From TrEMBL:
Domain of life from the UniProt record: Bacteria
Pfam families assigned to the protein according to its UniProt record, in alphabetical order: DUF1761
Transmembrane segments: 6-31, 58-79, 91-111, 123-147
Organism of derivation: Paenibacillus cremeus
Name listed for the protein in its UniProt record: DUF1761 domain-containing protein
InterPro entries per record: DUF1761
This protein's UniProt keywords: Membrane, Transmembrane, Transmembrane helix
């Protein structure tokens, strides 16, 4: 079965690293412009959010990160196997990177661009969120590619 071939150690570590990367990307590297454009002056301040709400947010995000890691691992295994069926080199890291970028664009752009189109956030928010996803999926690729 396909799920039995997944490296669950890499799933666990990449799920945690996605959380760390997200914190660094949104709260350290791009903190001021992102928080200004994403939340504005009407957002809840750090002091008004309860500790239980923060813990709940952390747990939800880490669970979603694990699901994302598992889904990506399955897609990568299918891409590797498809090389035999469709005549491309399934063992090419360069090809896997192209596949990862296509997958990232197809599954993240509707959500990141949706923030501009439907929530009227700035293009900066779209750029920060999209660039985070590109870096995150590249991290996932490298972890699943090299962690044997």
């Amino acid at each position: 079965m396909l799920l039995s071939s997944i490296n669950y150690g890499a799933v666990f570590v990449s799920g945690i690293l996605s959380l760390v990367l997200g914190f660094l990307w949104m709260a350290v590297i791009w903190a001021k412009p992102y928080q200004r454009d994403m939340y504005g002056k009407t957002s809840l301040s750090e002091d008004t959010v309860s500790k239980s709400t923060k813990i709940q947010s952390f747990v939800i995000y880490i669970m979603v990160s694990f699901v994302t890691s598992i889904a990506f691992a399955v897609c990568l295994e299918l891409w590797k196997a498809g090389g035999q069926a469709f005549g491309y080199d399934g063992n090419s890291l360069t090809g896997a990177f192209g596949f990862t970028m296509l997958l990232t664009a197809g599954y993240t752009l509707p959500f990141t661009v949706g923030k501009k189109v439907w929530q009227f956030k700035s293009w900066l928010v779209v750029a920060v969120d999209t660039s985070y996803e590109i870096v995150r999926f590249t991290m996932l690729l490298l972890m699943f590619w090299f962690w044997k």
